């Protein structure tokens, strides 16, 4: 009933699975996407939004590589915001609210239009391994499907257990079944498994809210978008979110339910996402704070369903309800469904290579929440990388690995496989050593050429990126080579309360002053002229501005990154025997033996491996 | 967390539940719709189409009363067909193919826009009854929700068990959980329960089909629509279906799986829908037929998923697949998912009153598949009637009951509660004694005034119906009163090879000849003129044509129906003691005691009650 053998079988059609399937198929692999329910492809389990700080950069990276998350988000967006616009460009982070139903529908239609991609609806209950190599999967009805490689993206479904107050029931997401069988197979193969938890807030009826008591949160005045491609357009119309606050009263009511909270009464033992804490966690950990923000987010263009961001909880429903009724604007709130927590199996990601292939089973890849991460963007980017690498391995090509100085995706995967994670891993800008390099505006420069080289990013995408690069670079050169006279620049300086000059000088120098913006520079007729003659679009102009104004920082980070690159070049053979190196600390020897870093640089990032241990390694390797 | 008490609680948001909730809320009842998953409201479990023979009439009736099924179907239609257009107007049956995803989304948004209607996502696991009256429901998490009335519309979910070949697993629909708890509560209360089964065909990838080997089945050239209201417009663009055939080869392969068929090896004991048989049923029962038709129906505007109408099966997947590959156009077919059968609990509907209220528990209503019916239309219409009647009872108003000569809905409910059903009940035109009266073109005349009287059908709907009625009647009068001269009518007659006339006569007479159509009559200038001056639309013109050409039949059935009405008027007190009537046959006495018919007419339709028994009753009641 299936072809003799697929190149790539993707299990699960969440964000990770959808990207994995699209990438492998677009690269030319005969790909099968098997999922429990074809009506729930790329469901947003939690909030209806993509992006945000560090996560928005990831979506831009996915898009630059040729994944679909950015395009689907754009097409179904109801609001766009560039967060942190007042800070330096390394911090700018795009975020989109999407229409939840349309998001899933658009993903499904995108996948259906992907050649080489087959679909099948069923639960996969086991994997088939022969001599340390994956050879297929088994469905719950007993069918065997053969594949040269398998990407597992089971999300929160593996032995999923839902908690609300003191009640528990099996499920992978509210209203959906849990997935059983795979965990056991993996453990039998020698994998280490763990348990994590995450939670979600109640959904409420917008008709029962009084928005006049909340603060409106409109989208950006000039909305941008995720995708570098022309497949999407910025929004013309947007829907607003709203903001309200909890209060001491609300906290008191919530505390009434603590003895029935699965978090506090011991029935949930696994660890939840520290940075998406539940509301009970927040009032517990920050007992001195007398209020917490709540964002009230519409679930789509037309629906009356709202998502209460910031109120994730697994307290008993009656407590959730009583407490929320005390929040301004929620006096008459009606629930669509209560918040809940879910516990699920994950596999410590130190069991993976940089390609996301497991070390134990050749051809078997893990991506997404199954690796102990949290968040759609983290999942999607892993799926993309696993799908690409599964394809490349099957076709005996070199693997596709992004370095820490090349992409947040590189940081994410390197962190996971090197350090593992004890709690749901979420991306932050602070995790990246070179975040000035890893900006949302230049993900195309960083990644499109690499992806084009392996045949994923198409020619159109590549040419568009080159045009942007060439034109913005030329514009920077123009600023470097063209002078402005005092009578041209001084009006700008005086408006900006900046010291006036008496002599002409290169515009680059004037423009570099922090208080001067591109908008100011456009007042100089030669600048205005240049833009018109060269037909520069907003992205090119913005890019030039960043290159001029942050060139110092960028240069410095580039140098640091180059040093890293050199260490990165020092590969450690997979068979390296650390037990011979007596001068290594005991802990380092143990960790290195377990994790088997691929390079000196990766070794240096393992917690427990000291600079001293790194020197020992360098000496031994003849450096 | 819920209001003190709802007027109406509807359990389940399938076709029955969605109509029930909309009707009760629109009538002004404080209504709650609780369902297992708010993302699957009004899912089409089986084929993506509404209407068809006898079923299309029901959709028109639902629309005339003010339900939403017609509107939602129209808004999401991808193809429209008026079936049986070559037969008399009693047989004309509208049918719409819908976009499956949009259908569910549109229903959800329609419900969200309904005032008085709240939503809640959870499984209901029990009902709460006090002194023979319903007082609420219990959720699986233990919440109690109070209600003055409850409508159960659990569809195929009650203890649902899915079968494919020799595998079984619990579920209410592929990929969804079964519902547990309610059956036990009802049995404890004294209800009789039974088990039925139904099945569905595989879904396949349209990209793997060769449509050039099939026969195209386009929609109507001039598509119409279900709704009488102006909320929807006829389609401008349509998608085609296709047709192919099974063969002896296909049948042989299917037979290979018979020993693993749950239908034939005894693992399914319950009875399936005789008129939607599985393919294995068909080749078993009609062993002499060497082929069966298959309709290949797209699931939406953009999706590549197709539904294989006519190939419903619960044979093992490998057999389904091998057999389908032998069908012309399916040589390379790829499956999205296999067909399957499902067994579920139902409650013999003789336990209900004409209002769909249970006889055992006051305020408790059953609607849809739970009553042993099959089909979206049958479910939706019951939901509508149960929702209306729950509202009316709570507000102490007279119940809303349709007679057999007023609506297919009347036939449906009367059949169910009077005769019960041993196998999934589906509507046919042959079930209606007065089908010449119950046409799809006049459902508005028949039902909108009744619905307007109880406040459901709005004024706009009512006025539109009146205009159509008045204008079409006036047009008929015009034909009755206006003469045509031989030189006007003879050209028409000669074109139609009909005998010529020598004298003027009333147009009504000429027009009554079977071979003459309205199109012909429009060639007469006074007719053309009348239409223009009076601004008649197509519906009014068509209505006049039917009234002229079928007046004889219609008149005759009206007379018969009037007789029925008189019997219908003879009410039997609920407390009537049949044991006193010794002249009744034993069987009649037993059935009458059990079913407690409300009228002599209903008594006469109970199987086992002979005309002689009816005479006994009539004599006893003084007639
Ligand atoms: C209750 C809840 C709360 C959350 N809260 C947050 C939060 O606060 N912040 C945050 O950033 N993220 C949160 N998330 C996490 C976010 O939803 C995930 O990170 C993201 O969806 C993971 O994507 P994924 O592709 O790994 O898995 P998922 O999106 O979970 O998708 C898994 C897919 O695999 C399918 N599947 C599973 N097992 C099988 C099988 N055996 N056979 C076939 N198909 C299978 C499922 O049907 C599903 O399609 C939450 C998730 C849940 C459920
Ligand atoms: C596999 C299959 C094959 C079918 N084949 C045919 C066919 O060939 N021909 C045909 O005419 N019809 C067929 N049907 C039947 C058709 O789908 C039904 O007649 C119609 O959908 C019934 O509508 P309903 O509203 O009664 O129930 P459903 O559409 O089944 O809806 C039931 C709803 O109730 C909810 N629910 C159930 N229990 C609970 C609970 N305890 N708490 C909260 N919510 C609950 C469910 O989530 C669902 O939303 C088939 C159905 C299935 C599943």
Descriptive report:
Chains A, B: Keywords: Cytoplasm, FAD, Flavoprotein, NAD, tRNA processing. Chains A, B: Belongs to the MnmG family. Two copies of one chain form a homodimer. With 623 residues, chain A is α+β, with helices and mostly antiparallel strands. Among the domains of chain A are: 203-339, Elongation Factor Tu (Ef-tu), domain 3 (Beta Barrel), CATH 2.40.30; 459-555, Orthogonal Bundle (Arc Repressor Mutant, subunit A), CATH 1.10.10; 570-621, DNA polymerase, domain 1, CATH 1.10.150.570. Chain A contains 21 helices and 22 strands. In chain A, strands 1, 2, 6, 7, 8, 9 and 20 form a seven-stranded mixed β-sheet that branches. Chain A has a six-stranded antiparallel β-sheet with strand order 14-15-16-17-13-18, with no helix packed on it. In chain A, strand 8 and strand 9 (144-152) form a beta hairpin. In chain A, helix 2 (55-65) packs parallel to helix 11, helix 6 packs antiparallel against helix 8 and helix 12 packs across helix 17. The model of chain A has no long low-confidence stretch (mean pLDDT 94). Chain A binds chain B through residues 1, 36-40, 43, 101, 105, 108-109, 112, 118-122, 140-143, 164-165, 167, 169, 174-177, 203, 205, 302-305, 317-318, 321-322, 334-337, and chain B through 1, 36-40, 43, 101, 105, 108-109, 112, 118-122, 140-143, 164-165, 167, 169, 174-177, 203, 205, 302-305, 317-318, 321-322, 334-337.
How would you concisely characterize the structure shown here?
The structure is a homodimer of 623-residue chains. The first copy, chain A, has 623 residues and is an alpha+beta fold.
């Amino acid at each position: 009933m299936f072809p003799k053998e697929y190149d790539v079988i993707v299990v699960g059609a969440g964000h990770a699975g959808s990207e994995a399937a699209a990438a492998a198929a677009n690269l030319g692999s005969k790909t099968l996407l098997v999922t429990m329910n074809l009506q729930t492809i790329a469901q947003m389990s939690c909030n209806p939004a993509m992006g945000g700080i560090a996560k928005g950069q990831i979506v831009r990276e996915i898009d630059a590589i040729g994944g679909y998350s950015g395009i689907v988000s754009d097409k179904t967006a109801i609001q766009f915001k560039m967060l942190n616009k007042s800070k330096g460009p390394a911090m700018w982070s795009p975020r989109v609210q999407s229409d939840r139903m349309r998001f899933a529908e658009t993903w499904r239609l995108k996948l259906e239009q992907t050649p080489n991609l087959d679909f099948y609806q069923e639960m996969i209950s086991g994997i088939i391994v022969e001599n340390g190599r994956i050879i297929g999967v088994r469905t719950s009805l007993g069918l065997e499907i053969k594949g040269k490689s398998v990407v597992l993206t089971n999300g929160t479904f593996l032995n999923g257990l839902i908690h609300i107050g003191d009640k528990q029931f099996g499920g992978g997401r509210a209203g959906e079944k849990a997935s059983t069988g795979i965990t056991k197979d993996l453990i039998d193969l020698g994998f280490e498994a763990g348990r994590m938890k995450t939670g979600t807030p109640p959904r409420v009826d917008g008709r029962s809210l009084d928005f006049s008591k909340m603060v409106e949160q409109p989208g950006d005045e000039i909305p941008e978008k995720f995708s570098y491609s022309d497949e999407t357009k910025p929004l013309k119309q947007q829907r607003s979110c709203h903001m309200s606050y909890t209060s001491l009263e609300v906290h008191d009511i919530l505390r009434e339910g603590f003895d029935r909270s699965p978090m506090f009464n011991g029935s949930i033992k696994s660890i939840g996402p520290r940075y998406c804490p539940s509301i009970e966690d927040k009032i517990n950990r920050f007992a001195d704070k007398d209020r917490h923000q709540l964002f009230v987010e519409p679930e789509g263009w037309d629906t009356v369903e709202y998502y209460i961001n910031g109120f994730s909880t697994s307290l008993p429903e009656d407590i959730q309800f009583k407490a929320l009724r005390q929040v301004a604007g929620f006096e008459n709130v009606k629930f669509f469904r209560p918040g809940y927590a879910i516990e699920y199996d994950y596999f410590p990601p130190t069991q993976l290579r940089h390609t996301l292939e497991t070390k134990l089973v050749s051809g078997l890849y893990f991506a997404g929440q199954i690796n102990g991460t949290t968040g759609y963007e983290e999942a999607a980017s892993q799926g993309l990388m696993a799908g690409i690498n599964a394809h490349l391995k099957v076709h005996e090509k070199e693997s596709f690995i992004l370095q820490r100085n090349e992409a947040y995706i590189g940081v994410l995967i390197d962190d996971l496989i090197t350090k593992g994670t004890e709690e749901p891993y979420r991306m932050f800008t602070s995790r990246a050593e070179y975040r000035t390099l890893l900006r949302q505006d230049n993900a195309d420069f960083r990644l499109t050429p690499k992806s084009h080289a392996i045949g994923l990013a198409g020619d159109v995408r590549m040419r568009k990126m080159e045009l942007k690069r060439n034109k913005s670079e030329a514009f920077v050169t123009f600023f470097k080579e063209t002078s402005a006279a005092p009578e041209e620049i001084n009006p700008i300086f005086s408006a900006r309360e900046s010291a006036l000059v008496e002599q002409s000088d290169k515009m680059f120098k004037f423009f570099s002053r922090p208080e001067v913006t591109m908008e100011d520079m456009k007042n100089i007729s030669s600048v205005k002229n240049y833009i018109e003659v060269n037909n520069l679009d907003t992205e090119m102009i913005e890019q030039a501005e960043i290159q001029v104004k942050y060139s110092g920082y960028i240069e410095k980070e580039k140098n640091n990154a180059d040093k890293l690159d050199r260490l990165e070049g020092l590969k450690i053979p997979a068979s390296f025997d650390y037990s011979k190196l007596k001068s290594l600390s005991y802990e380092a020897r143990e960790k290195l033996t377990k994790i088997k870093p691929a390079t000196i640089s990766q070794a240096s990032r393992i917690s427990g491996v000291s600079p001293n241990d790194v020197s020992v390694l360098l000496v031994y390797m003849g450096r």
